[in-house]
Specification:
Blueprint lengths: L2 H22 L4 H7 L19 H43 L35 E3 L6 E3 L6 H27 L7 H10 L7 H11 L11 H33 L6 H12 L28 H16 L7 H4 L3 H12 L1 E3 L11 H4 L12 H5 L36 E4 L11 H15 L3 H19 L4 H37 L2 H10 L8 H29 L5 H16 L3 H19 L4 H11 L12 H8 L2 H4 L41
Antiparallel strand pairs: 1-2, 3-4
């Protein structure tokens, strides 16, 4: 190959990544013009030059324009048909009033024409090169590709404006109606991405709550006080997410600039500065002795300097000014520790971490042990010689000698950091076919087309496992949604059974002479096969329990045992077990969900109220079988009191714990009064 061809190939390869990056999606022109420079009130410019719109946003904007186009077409068609109908009626009246020859009857007017609206006629295109800055080869200046008369260019601006004016407001409205959206950062991220909102809008969302929170539409069952509380909780979770993301960038920057032996010391010191400042206000970094004494930037980080850097990162990346007292008053340390470790890829030792010194004795306590290791003072002592080696010399592959911790004890130590693994991000393909099949199946079931709906739902589940795999977040969501759907169908049948039982009770209490007349009036309320309906309810509840258990198994392996999805599914499973007759098991599962929720997200989340209500109140009103009050009281007794009473009949499987998703009954202390109606087979 000639040199000219080599130069041509290199120029093509150099230009290809730029063209691919530019042409993937459209530019978020509204954010670029309003929030990308220093003029928006932030000292630092946005760290990324190219800001793009998500494909979900472009699709949502297209659907909104398609709906408006269809409504306009329908309106025009209806007006056209109405005018034709009026003209036909006028012609008929004129023909009837005309006195002419009866033999020559007027011709019958033609029927009004009907037009078919084809959605394929709707066209909406985007120009991916619009508002992109490129340097002019001659002048060297930045030129912005912009054609005000081009419709595709205007669609890019309208889509960006649609995101800021419509989509953000819709997200806040949905958050008020569903407080579970404000549980953790992972759920917020997933929800925002599905709605087409980029994570750079976290700060704008928080500012929108502060300025326009009272203007959010409220549902029929939502009061203004509840909406205010939910929005404030959502704002705090948005601030947590911004802080976690900013801290992630800081930790990664220090890890990239340090050696492999400094990873544990970097993570422990930064964690102490961020989370352990109340335990030790001046933590000292644990360093290692190296042959070359190099300067370490992370060694001089203090709690005050780290918080200032986090504020700068939040202001630059999310265009939001973090309050001065937020770290002391609002930061949930367990939440930040969990999500930050997952984002960075840090594995910590399983022990209790004290963020606040309860007493002087606690502050003066020695460093804790990790995984049965010796104390820190003992770990630092490395012998100068060995039996097989020479005295006074170290092996070539020997690890550097750690330096003994100086000063007061801290919350985290380098021995607590077991590993720092790289976090790999990958794009996930979402199958529209699976979503459509599952939705059509749900719709058919709710329209009393059980056979068609069940076939569609099963096909969607099989297709989901073939596309994503059996252990995937999408499969867990589908199993959970299907279980809740079976539960709703069972509740619908239960309401019909209550009406049937009330009608029967009324008939039994009426006199004989009035019973026949009343029976004709309530004949529509009586069910021909009440016993079959009760058996159907029990089968639906069994199926719902099995599916939700399977979703928990998948969620714990994909999201984690303490994730928001797992907590929600544990809560739903507890309610399902109670309604299926397993009171003790349901209470144990609900307690497990409560413990995880309080530990991870605090005790002020509105979802905790739902868990408390489901634990305190028994589902007697919704259960298909009436339970005695003594059984409920016996199930809710503490374990130390339950041993003195007569044990209820043993269940089918009492060896498995109730907190495990593969168990269907409670442990020995939490035996149920009847055999379990759920499947105990491992899913």
């Amino acid at each position: 190959m000639s040199h000219a061809s080599d130069d041509l190939l290199q120029s093509d390869l150099a230009d290809t990544p730029v063209r691919v990056a530019v042409r993937m999606q459209c530019v978020d022109v509204e954010f670029k013009e309003k929030n990308l420079t220093k003029e928006d009130g932030v000292e630092e410019a946005y760290p990324h030059r190219l800001v793009l719109l998500r494909p979900e946003l472009l699709e949502a904007y297209r659907e909104s324009k398609l709906d408006a186009w269809l409504k306009e077409k329908v309106k025009i068609t209806q007006e056209k048909v109405a005018k034709e109908q009026q003209s036909i009626e006028a012609e008929l009246k004129e023909a009837a009033s005309t006195d002419g020859d009866k033999a020559a009857e007027p011709a019958k007017p033609a029927a009004p024409t009907t037009s078919v609206i084809n959605a394929e006629d709707f066209v909406l295109n985007y120009n991916p090169d619009a508002f992109v800055e490129r340097k002019d080869s001659e002048s060297g200046k930045d030129l912005v590709i912009y054609d005000p008369e081009d419709e595709t260019t205007q669609n890019v601006r309208l889509a960006s404006r649609y995101l800021r004016e419509v989509v953000l407001h819709e997200f806040l409205t949905e958050a008020v109606a569903a407080p579970f959206l404000a549980t953790d950062g992972f759920l917020i991220t997933r929800t925002l991405h599905r709605k087409g909102i980029n994570m750079r809008y976290l700060g704008l969302l928080a500012a929108k709550i502060e300025t326009e929170g009272d203007k959010v539409e409220l549902g029929k069952a939502t009061s203004k006080e509840e909406a205010t509380f939910t929005l404030e909780l959502l704002r705090q979770n948005l601030l947590h997410e911004m802080v976690i993301r900013a801290t992630k960038h800081i930790v990664n920057r220090h890890l990239r600039s340090a050696g492999p032996y400094d990873a544990a010391g970097i993570v422990s010191h930064l964690y102490n500065c961020l989370l352990g400042s109340a335990y030790n206000a001046s933590p000292v970094a644990e360093t290692v002795d190296l042959a070359c004494d190099t300067a370490r930037e992370w060694d001089s980080v203090s709690p005050a300097s780290l918080r200032d850097e986090i504020r700068r990162q939040v202001a630059a990346r999310f265009r939001y000014t973090l309050p001065e007292t937020w770290f002391e008053e609002h930061m949930l340390k367990n939440k930040v520790l969990r999500e930050l470790s997952l984002r960075v890829g840090v594995q910590l030792a399983a022990r209790k971490y004290d963020f606040v010194a309860s007493s002087t004795a606690d502050a003066a306590a020695p460093a804790p042990r990790a995984n049965g290791a010796a104390p820190l003072e003992a770990e630092t002592a490395v012998p100068s010689s060995s039996k097989k080696g020479k005295k006074g010399k170290k092996g070539k592959n020997a690890a550097p000698e750690p330096v003994k911790q100086k000063g007061e004890p801290t919350t985290f130590y380098s021995a607590d950091v077991l590993s720092v693994a790289p976090v790999i991000k990958a794009t996930q393909h979402r199958s529209a076919l699976v979503e459509d099949m599952f939705y059509q199946g749900q719709r058919a079931i709710h329209e009393n087309q059980a056979e068609i709906g069940e076939a569609l739902v099963n096909d969607a589940l099989h297709l989901c496992e073939q596309i994503y795999g059996a252990v995937h977040t999408e499969a867990a969501d589908k199993y959970h949604a299907l279980g809740i759907m079976w539960h709703n169908i069972a509740q619908r049948i239960i309401r019909t059974l209550r009406t049937h039982e009330a009608a029967e009770q009324t008939l039994r209490e009426l006199p004989a002479q009035e019973r026949e007349q009343y029976e004709k009036q309530v004949s529509e309320l009586l069910m021909p096969d009440a016993e079959g309906a009760r058996a159907e309810v029990e089968a639906y509840l069994q199926q719902a329990v099995r599916l939700v258990r399977q979703s928990i198994v998948i969620s714990e392996r994909t999201h984690g045992v303490d994730s928001a999805d797992a907590i929600t599914q544990y809560s739903d499973l507890g309610l399902l077990e109670q309604q299926a007759g397993n009171i003790a098991v349901g209470l144990q599962l609900t307690r497990h969900a409560m413990d995880l929720h309080v530990f991870t997200y605090g005790s002020k989340h509105p979802q905790l109220h739902t868990l408390l209500v489901s634990r305190i109140h028994s589902p007697r009103s919704s259960a298909p079988v009436t339970h005695k009050r003594a059984r409920i009281n016996r199930a809710m007794r503490p374990p130390w009191c339950r041993r003195a009473t007569v044990s209820p009949p043993r269940s089918r499987c009492t060896s498995r714990t109730a907190s495990s998703p593969n168990s269907s009954t409670a442990p020995t202390r939490w035996r149920s009064d009847k055999p379990s109606t759920s499947s105990v087979r491992r899913t």
